Amino acid sequence: MVLGKGASSSLSMNKVDGAEEMVDNSNNFTVLVADDDPLIQKLHEMHLKKFGLKVQVVENGKKAVDLCHFGATFNLILIDKEMPVMDGAEATKELQAMGVNSLIVGVTSRDSPYEKQAFMEAGLDYCFEKPLTADKINFLLQELNKNN
Amino acid sequence: MDVLQLQKQFVDYRASLYHEGFLDEQFTQLQELQDENNPDFVVEVVSLFFEDSERLLNELTKALEQQSIDFKRVDAHVHQLKGSSSSIGAQRVQKVCIAFRNYCEEQNIEGCLKCLQQVKHEYSLVKTKFETMFQLEQQILTAGGSIPV
């Protein structure tokens, strides 16, 4: 799979060998990553930047909520379930209550379907299992392109 | 050893890590994220994994030494370790964590202690493997070659 080289104005070529059509990387989509693990933060940030996305990172749900409360807007919010101070489910509920105009996607390492369901019920648009992969980001980019 | 030989040694070594289950596809994704703008990305992420793991293994040891074990706390630490090991593709560590979490759920002390030993062992193995791999990379670079993808 060809990944954009980080510049947000790069266009990806359509592959001619039948592989999936590339998403246009000339987007100005912004992403907020909320996760307390520095390893995950670094990984997700890098993954997303490769797709030309502008990334901001916070380490807990409260910081995510506060950012949005003070007027920051994001096209996509990637939110971990397990975080100190305020966890992903609570933060999601607050963000939805605030009426943020973002795709809110849970990223969790909880494998039980019950826990995933509970997280979804907090108001997520989607919930993925960690780790984030290129396929998942591609999928989300397609969703963002649809909505914007 | 010349560059070509070093490169072959590196490629074979890396392939063996996949073959023996130390690494999985997630590590490949990690390598694909590295580029000229971020040439040390993999080393940096793996270093974070070392830090995370060592801290968590210490916490787990302490938690399982308590008179009255707080299994929720133990589970939380294992869960984190499972998360970081799966994120970098350290498959064998991740697998032990899955078994470990089952024992936590059952509140099985013996099972937990056994898993703690196992996970420490697997972590120590994969750490050595990574360090060897990075050393091989360094040798290639020092000899003026480039790291094969």
From TrEMBL, chain A:
Q: Keywords on this record?
A: Phosphoprotein
**UniProt cross-references to PROSITE patterns, sorted A to Z:** RESPONSE_REGULATORY (PS50110)
BP terms from Gene Ontology: phosphorelay signal transduction system
The chain residues annotated with the modification 4-aspartylphosphate are 80
Q: Which CDD domains match?
A: REC_hyHK_CKI1_RcsC-like (cd17546)
- Give the InterPro entries listed for this entry: CheY-like_superfamily, Sig_transdc_resp-reg_receiver, ST_Response_Regulator
Is Ion transport found in the keyword set? no
Keyword set includes Phosphoprotein: yes
**Where does the Response regulatory domain lie?**
30-145
UniProt-listed SMART domains: REC
PANTHER family of this UniProt entry?
Answer: TWO-COMPONENT RESPONSE REGULATOR, TWO-COMPONENT RESPONSE REGULATOR ARR22
Can you say what this protein is called? Two-component response regulator ARR22-like
Give the organism the record lists.
Durio zibethinus
UniProtKB/TrEMBL annotation, chain B:
Q: Which InterPro entries match?
A: AHP1-5/YPD1, HPT_dom_sf, Sig_transdc_His_kin_Hpt_dom
Describe the location of the HPt domain by residue ranges.
38-143
Annotated CDD domains: HPT
Residues bearing Phosphohistidine are 79
Main site of residence?
cytoplasm
Q: Does the keyword Transmembrane helix apply?
A: no
Under PROSITE patterns, the record lists: HPT (PS50894)
The record's Gene Ontology cellular component field reads:
cytosol; nucleus
Q: Cross-referenced Pfam families, in alphabetical order?
A: Hpt (PF01627)
Annotated GO biological process: cytokinin-activated signaling pathway; phosphorelay signal transduction system
PANTHER family given for it?
PHOSPHORELAY INTERMEDIATE PROTEIN YPD1
Functionally, this protein is described as follows: Functions as a two-component phosphorelay mediators between cytokinin sensor histidine kinases and response regulators (B-type ARRs). Plays an important role in propagating cytokinin signal transduction.
Protein known as: Histidine-containing phosphotransfer protein
Gene designation: LOC111294430
